C-alpha cells in the first residue's frame, strides 16, 4: 500500500502540474475527461488509485499525448520503463550476469546521484518527478543482491569510464568509492581495460549476458530509447566470446582495484 501510495502521489503531482501549465481549473479538466471534480482532486493529491484510461483521457485533454500514460506504465511495477520490464524479470532470475560498458558505470553498480545525473542529461525533457521515478526503478534492481544467494556479477569497464568526472568530481569520487566497496564482495568481479592497452576488442557498444538456470543464455543490447533481449544462439555465442576477449584485455582483479583506488585519489 505504501508503495502504491507513493506511485499515486507522483502521478497526481504530474497531472496537477500539466493541468496548471494548460491554464485549466480542476473543474474545467474534470468536465473535459468526464470525471467529477472531487475525483480529480483526489487523484491530484495522490489519495486514491488512478486508472490507466483516466490518464489517457487526461493526456488527450491536456495535449500531452502519452506523457502521463507513459509515467503510469513506467511506475506500474518498479518505476522501470515498460520496454525494460522483461529484462528486469530475466535479471531477477539470473544466476550470473556479465556486463560490459565502454562509457558508463552499469546500472547495477551506480550510486543514486550518479544515476540521477545520467537520467537528467540523457532525458532533458523529463520532469523532476519522472527522473525520480526512473532513479527509484534503477535503484530497486539492486535488490537481487540482498538475497541469501545473490547472482554473480562480472563487470568489465573501459578506463575512460573511471576517469570522466560524470556529474562532477564529488559525485564521481563517491561513485568510485562505491565501486571499490562493491568489488570487494565475493559475488562481484570488476575488471578495467586500461588506456595503454594496444588491444581493445570492445570499441563498439555495451551489452549484458544473463545465465538463467534451466534456460538458454540471454543477450541484452540497449540503445538510447529501447532494448531487446535475445536468446539467438549465434548472437549469444558471439558476445560471450567478445566478453571473454574483453576480460583477457583487462587488468586482473587486483590490478583493476588498484587502478580504481589511484583514480579515486585524483578526484
From TrEMBL:
GO terms for molecular function: DNA binding. It holds the Pfam family DUF5753. The keyword DNA-binding applies. Keywords: DNA-binding. SMART domains: HTH_XRE. CDD domains: HTH_XRE. The keyword DNA-binding applies. Residues 15-71 form the HTH cro/C1-type domain. This is DNA-binding protein. It comes from Thermobifida cellulosilytica TB100. The lineage of its organism: Bacteria, Bacillati, Actinomycetota, Actinomycetes, Streptosporangiales.
